[in-house]
Each structure stands twice: as structure tokens, then as C-alpha cells.
Amino acid sequence: MAYGFVEIVGVTAAITAIDTMCKTAEVKLVTWEKKWGGRLVTVIIQGEVSAVQAAVEAAKSTAVASGVLANPHSEITRIICKGRR
To answer: Where do the DSSP E strands lie in the chain?
Structure first.
């Protein structure tokens, strides 16, 4: 299992990136967080490592920053779950 993180400028661009990632590979949207009134959006996806890598790569061209965490520590999962509330 892996998490993928993509930071994107703008809600519309984030929605487009989510659509691209979900169509590219078998990943699931975990959550998204809007900062500064939606000017910066962090999208978090989950899936098998190779699927997450492919999905993040597909959205990378519109991203400000991105990353993939393979086999994340349980504290990372706790932080992500806490942020979804």
C-alpha cells in the first residue's frame, strides 16, 4: 500500500488532476485539503505502489509538489485519517 501526494494551485486544476489520476491507475482518493481559500490544494490518493506512482506521475505536470510514500509508517496513516475529519 502507498499514499500519493500532489499539491496543485486551484480547485479546478485539482479536480482535473484527481480525474486524471483515477483514470490512469487503480487508485482511490483519500482526501483533499484546500488552503488559502482553495488557491492551494493537496490531494492524497491511496493504492498499490506502482499504481500510485503512475497516477502521481500523470498529474505531475500541473503539480507544485508531489511525492509517493510506499509502505507508510502507521503514524502517517493516523495523521492522514485525523486530517479527514
So the answer is: 2-9, 27-35, 40-47, 63-70
* Domain spans, the chain: 2-83
pLDDT tens figures, 24-51: 999 999 999 988 777 899 999 999 999 9
Please give the single-letter amino acid code of residue 73. Answer: H
From 56, 50, 9, 7, select the one nearest 32 (Cα to Cα).
Answer: 7
- Provide the whole-model pTM: 0.90
CATH topology (fold) of 2-83 = Alpha-Beta Plaits (3.30.70)
C-alpha cell at 29: 482518493
Distance between CA atoms of 3 and 25, rounded to whole angstroms? 13
